Fold each of these.
Amino acid sequence: MLDKTVKKIIEKSKSLGWILEPDAKALMKSRGFDIPDSILTSSFKEADQFLTHSKGPVVAKAVSKKILHKTEHQAVVTGIFSSDHLKNEMERLQKLVGCENILVEEMVQGIEIIIGAKNDFQFGPVIVFGIGGTSVEIYNDTAVRMAPLSPDDVLSMVNSLKAKEIISGYRGKTGVNMEALTHLLVNFSQFVMEHENDIESIDLNPVMCTKDQCVIVDARIMLQPS
Amino acid sequence: MNLKYLFRPSTMAVIGVSTSQDNHPANVIYNKNHLRYPVKTFPVNPKGGIFSRETLYQTVEDIQEKIDMAVIAVRSEFVPGVVEQCIQKGVGGAVIISGGFAESGNLRLQQRVVDIAKEASFPFVGPNCLGIYAPDYVDTFFLPGERIIHPDKGNVGFVSQSGGVLVDQMVKFAGQGIGISLAVSIGNKACIRETDMLDWLDQDLATKVIAFYVEGFEKGEGRQFIKKAEQCSKPVIILKAGKSKKGIEAVSSHTASLAGDYRVFSEIMKQYCVAEADNEYELTSFCEALSCYPKGINGNIGIITLSGGHGVIAADACERHGVSIPGIEPATIGIIKEKLSPEIRNIVSLENPLDLTGSSTDCDIVTSARHLSRDNNIDCIMALLIPYSPGISTDIGAKLSLVARNEGKPMIAYVPNEDKYRIIIEGFELNNIPVASSVEGAVLMAKALMRCRPC
């Protein structure tokens, strides 16, 4: 049943070549990974209700088949507390190229990490893990391992980072829940192995990790050219 | 595929021997094997004729005896036909020296040869290669014996995509006293590839360490290789060429741009404890160290030096290569101090590096090595032996080797590579202790042990 969801989403995205964020998130959820509570809507009223009922600020993102890298199009707004702010930003986002819908999500805090996958020509599926965020390519503090990963691989990936103390906790700051991180990475690597023929690469960036959980805040899945 | 006849042939046909060109590859190969190797060698040329007072066979099928292996050095267009003749004759395998295949765009011709061989399970090395150097058995390199430097027979199996790199590496091995069990240039690797060689060398009793020079793998082949390396009972070393970032500019995801082809290669080698050498010098050091010590270390080195300067140079190199120099336990310092000669007791530096000064004797060095080996913080001893000091005897290599064997911790030595010090070097090497000819080389050996699977 769950695998059917995955197949259905992959099939419907093939012509585009990549999976839109709401679908990518649904796919991750179907595999048992945590994603933020959200609503996909074009109505301000619905979005506003979501904001009222959420525990804290929300994030609004434009969902467009023409926007692959949202940051570069200013298609993500974080830290929305008020209805007015939400309204203004929704109106702006809806004017962005190809915008079909707005994804409004609860804003999740934590340590930003990147978990990625790539179908390598020589080695098949490989997993990337490291310090995430929009500057990931500048810092490039990541580790690469061949999938599937074992829990020991996860530990060695963490230990190989320059910023490993950020993951383990330093100067009184709590780190990342290693059990949750290991569970996510090991299972994600298995998912990638199962779908190596469909998937070219995946960015889960950022994944917000705390001492309690790891939540996938953004997901981009590039499909193999058919 | 049975590769026995290729690497341990008793009889060999060299096809393409020329009656007019003395330097033709087939002539060079025929001459050196016929004159200097135990393999019984038969010259073949479709036109027949006389060569060195011997009648050339017109086809391999004309040879009365069973032929284990054929060297094929004819023009590329004739290769498929010659391979068919070899199969017909029941030859055990071939080395195809000839170029003019995939490397110059003739993919179809190469595929024809592959198809013919595959159908008959006929193994071949190449095309476009130097082939095989198996000390005491066979040498298909088309380079005159007097021009190349052969390392002695030893325990390193080396496989290279490039013939030039292979020959050059053999010079480096010979220079460091590293011996070869088998060296194979696999060229276009149309049939026998790295994975096949890994299988063969894993089983080969003469080989203790397996080294590769690789430019690239086919689709999915890297995964196959690494899985075999993981199962392999011997240390595997790899030198990769083609590390540039070419081809990843147009990628559309962060992951793809972070994980370029070489980055993926290098990290996966590390993940599976294949020791990746950064360059040919590292490859040489890695081969020597891992042929003595097949199990890895965590990289906590205890350095014994007779000169403060060498200790500092070693410490710098250790930092550069990620090798650590931990503090020595106070109990170790106490016992070493107690046992040192009274003349040096108050002038030595009892830290790590342990500087015993130029006034030390064999006895001081041996005692220090013994107790440093027993220190829990240390998992490898590095002895920087500058043999200029009058207190050092020519037996120091053999004496320290005995300490290493008794204490059970790896030891790496540095001794200047001079004829004068040969007896010290051999005192180590004949007792299976690797000797570097530079301080940096000794540190690279420690790095090799760190890159290998830990005990």
Note: The longest helix of chain B spans residues 107-119.
Amino acid sequence: MKVRHWAGLACVAGMALVLVSCGKKEESAENKAAPAAQPAAAPVDAATAGSVSGAVKFVGAVPKAKTLNMAADAACAGAHSGPVSDLEVVANASGDLANVIVYVKDGLGNRAFEAPKDGAQLNQEGCMYTPHIVGMMAGQTLSVKNSDKTTHNIHPVPKNNREWNKSQPPGSPNINEVFARDEVAIPVKCNVHPWMKSYIAVFKHPYFAVTDAKGSFEIKNLPPGTYTIEAWHERFGTVSQSVTVGAKEAKTVAFSFKPDSGD
Amino acid sequence: MPDVQKEVQAEDPVVGKSYSAAILVSSFLLVLSLTWALYDEFFGLRPWRGYQGRFTAAYTKFLKQEIPKQQSALRAMEESPRYKELQQARDAAQKAAAPRLAELEKQTSLVNQQLGEITDSFTTARGKVQALTYHLELAPKGSSSRNSRQQDVEDAKKEKYTIELHTKEGKIEKKEADFFELDKMFLDLKEQKAALTSDRIAALKEVSALDAQIEEYKKEQMTSLTPDQLKSLLRAAQEIPEEIRQINVNPASLALNNLGSGGLVDRCQSCHLATDPKVVPPNLVLTKALLGVGKSKDAPFTSHPEADLLRFHSLERFGCSPCHGGNGRAVSSVEKAHGRYEHWLWPLYKPENYNSGCQQCHSADVVTEYAPVLNRGKELFRSRGCIGCHKFEGFDDQPEQLQATHQLIKQLEQRKKENELDVPRLNKQADTAPDNETAQKLYAKANNLTVEISNLDARMEQLEVKTESLFREAKKVGPDLKEIRMKIHKEWIPVWLGHTHEFRPTTKMPQFRLKQDEIEAISAYVWQTALPGPALASQPPGNAARGKELLETRGCLACHSMGEADKAIGGTFAANLSRVGEKDNYEYLVRWIHNPRERTRPYCPYEKRDLGPEDYAKHGLPFVFDLDHSHCPNDGHQLEVQQPTVMPNLRLTIEEARDIASYLLTKKHADAGYAAAAFMDDKVLLDKGKGLVRYYGCAGCHEISGFEEEGRIGTELTTEGSKPIDRFDFGRLTEVAKRGIIIQPDGAPTKKESEAWYDQRGFFEAKLRNPAVFDYNRADPTLKMPKPNVTPVDITALTTFLLGSVDPVLPPEYKYVPADQRRDIQEGWWIVTKYNCMGCHQIRIGQQSVLQTLPMYQAENKANLPPALTSEGARVDPAWLQRFLTNPPLSTTDMNRNGVRSYLQVRMPTFSFSGNEIQKLVRFFAALSAQQSPYVAPKLEPLTAAERDMARQLFTSTAAPCLKCHATGNPAHDKNASAPNFLLARERLKPAWTGRWITDPAKIIPGTSMPSGLFRREGDRWVFSGPLPASFHGYTKDHADLLVRYMFQLTPEEQRSLLGRTPSSAGAGAGK
């Protein structure tokens, strides 16, 4: 019996040793691994940063914009002097396509970027959303304002983010919300005014831009590298191309969308 | 002598012979056997010792790693701003309360001191008075001693005691007090003390509230165990005794035992230590990866993966083996413990069949929580038509019930006839009776018989009602073949019978093994016995493009799928419609889409034939039969007036039906072509065909002329899982199965070997893969079960279901037959799954409907989905729900609409449920939301005139856009509506739910169109968040409650006045 006890003791002691040493090893490994898992936001070297700019065109006959009927709410109709057009496709006669969001889809590796302190803005004015397309970063605050004399509700319908739907009566303070995950693009609607529509594109990085009335955009402060740049339009979907940006290089790219098969 | 000596010496075995070799060998043997014995003692016969040692080591290691992790998590939590904020608030509160507490403390100690100072004198005085009073009571009444004793008591009460009392100022006061004064002082002080205690609690109120918040926050943040808890676990783990761990299932029941005596004993935890809550607490989930034994195949150290299951099935009551199988007593080897040896009748279920263990007690459920595989098996058993041939207790048995009811009606009719003959006979006998007494008896007897006849009438009438209900409930898996002449292209039928799964790879119909002559005979029989008419009205062509849109928006895809192979979208509950154009006739399809329940001729079970216009004409009646005209014109019995299909009536217009039919007929393969089939009209084939239809049991799934009352042809499977293995006919594959040889699909053995499959599981799986497999190598194949259209996953599900379907070995009280609301849930699921309610609706929290998964209902289009019913019982008045389920358009004239959500394209169809089904559904929803039954609508406080004005103003203010989204009955307005009409609220909704809904709808249905934040919490009431009309100033009641009360008394006139418009003639949408 005694022998067994001793053997048992020895075993336990041995095991304890093994355990202690194992535990120590893993602990130290974890300590080392910790910083690698979450890379700190590496500052982009302004000295070498380049840019990508260009224009987005629509090839083919530009679909005619529908006129919105705001008769359901006098506060909306009264805010406009003339007819208001639907913003689904905004392009001029030469095919310059506005409201396209152009962004770096791929190529930044595991660089992480901090969200800006300033919030992204979405205003409800004349029962329309301005801007029509919001680009913002995950973790950035979206500040929604109601400039109208009627109650709106803001209802983003995301796929990968948390869904919410809040009522905002006239004169009430801004609604501040944050999207935690990147997603292109989250439709936003107002259930009270079914014609109101906006899209919010959320990114993990600051390299995105929405095309202006001339269809042009610029993505600045981009570290040298090879990127997949993608352009997204609410009706025509996405097109993308690969772009290599050298140090301090200002690259120009062009995107074009074709008419969709529908109607 | 020396010689002799020598000889003696030489012969002396001690000297001359050495046994050392033998001794050596035997001592080796002895040591060996000792070692062996010791090995067996400690390990060989006790393999659990090894497992326990390894578990303890791994567990201790894990805990040691976990402690520092949780310590740092705790530190991080303590440094989080929220925690600091709470802690600071708590400290501040404590500080703020400190002076008051100190003051209270001082007062309390003074009171305590004073109490101490008078207690002595008070108890002495009280003791004296009580003793003397006792003496007084002993003295006889009226005696002189009584008077003197009375005097003593009075004296004692007046006796003065000197007490020294501390005062507030700290001085000492000397006082004289008698018994009464002392008593009063004592009580006063006690009261003061109690008041001080409650003051102290009040002063600490804020601090305690914050303490509770801190604890709550800790709980939220520290999802795992705290370092202290882990440390105590570690201490316990290091001292885990090496012993057999045994569950003595309680209550000890002789029936609960698969060995024969002493109740059930499970020792599984001797190796599966992590399942013992004494070793690993239920809130710590151990996995192999966590324990660092992820790769080991022999490490049974994980926690039970479903801790919730153990909450409803306590180890003390259920043990392990009742659910898992196996031999819970055995500890000598893994094989023994798992019951995987010959003659043990309850081997451990394989992981993929774990759900089998639920079936024994949950056989009355069609949906069992936590048992998805079993549920799938049951669903397949029902939807694939297994039930058409195989009886199974608890599954749909309407055909049997119908037959029994018919028989009973016939018996009763016979009795009635006899009685009716008896009455005049008895009366006649009475008329001519020899004496009055006999006559009276006979008259009375005749009278009694007439009453009995009347009672028989009442019973028969009830049986007719039951028949009507059963006809509504009885469904066939396959289509009605009586209609085949009107519905189907003639040439297509033999092709379908021969190539069932090729033509429609997702069909529910199994593939029969038919020879060409059999196909011809069966086709000819069903064709020639099908109804020839009356011919269908011819239909003008519809608009196929519009038909496609209707099919995609009305909800057809919740059950049906469109598109072939991987392009198919939609539900699997009903047929894939991709090739309908190759087989269906247009006119029939239009009628079917318009109302799938419509029959060509009603069937009379009494006369056993289909009635025609001639039967009605004989009685001067028009040929009209439906749920409202369901009596036989010949004999008044209930007719079968509907097609026995689960497909509901979508209440489409005839134009819409034409559009959809036109679209469906475009769906065909470009190269589709079918050879002429002249044999279909060959009368000679009729007899042979009839025999084959009977032989193959076609009538199990189809309605066929001449087979209306055909029974099920297969084996009953209710307890198939406990049929002894030797009663399963493995045919020529018996040895193959015993040796574990893998077979090819046709049964031919391969060269490969695996585990033996000579068990129930092996039989079920092989049979379901290929029902003919056990005919392998038989000269004369006898098996006729057709090949079911199932995937390997389906086979596992069906096998799981069959394996669990056993003769109960557990005592009856273990069976899940709840007597409370859970029974309503249990019964409701049978209806919900029967009609595929979950194709459109979300009923269980977290469940997705089929429509939710379709591309046309994503992102913003989610608003077009049918409503989620996760809170339906709490939402609607059960009486209303009953009306709605009977009549979903909530109208008798305007049928082409949804009664509640008129704005939705997707349509709530009319199912023509039986009363019984509706009752079960209503109770089901009530039970799911834990609603009391019966429901008594609460009386709402009536609105004052001022309140009515306020509510009106709020309803119409720009701040509250209620009427922008909610329908009003005005078609122009409702074009853009996205919510129900308020007029429905009073009859439809429950006020409590409505209050919760308007204050935070996203809580009840996440993603709803109704916005949150319309009200904000102010103290203990809800206040409207927007700008308020002036009339609200000074209103102190709850605003949400005001609106709810207003909504529940809203009248059409009131609503029209709100809208400031003239009444619209369109259906106002009021709940009727």
Note: The interface with chain A takes residues 57, 60-61, 64-65, 68, 858-860, 862-863, 958-961, 964-965, 973, 976, 978, 1001-1002, 1006-1014, 1025-1027 of chain B (CB under 8 Å).
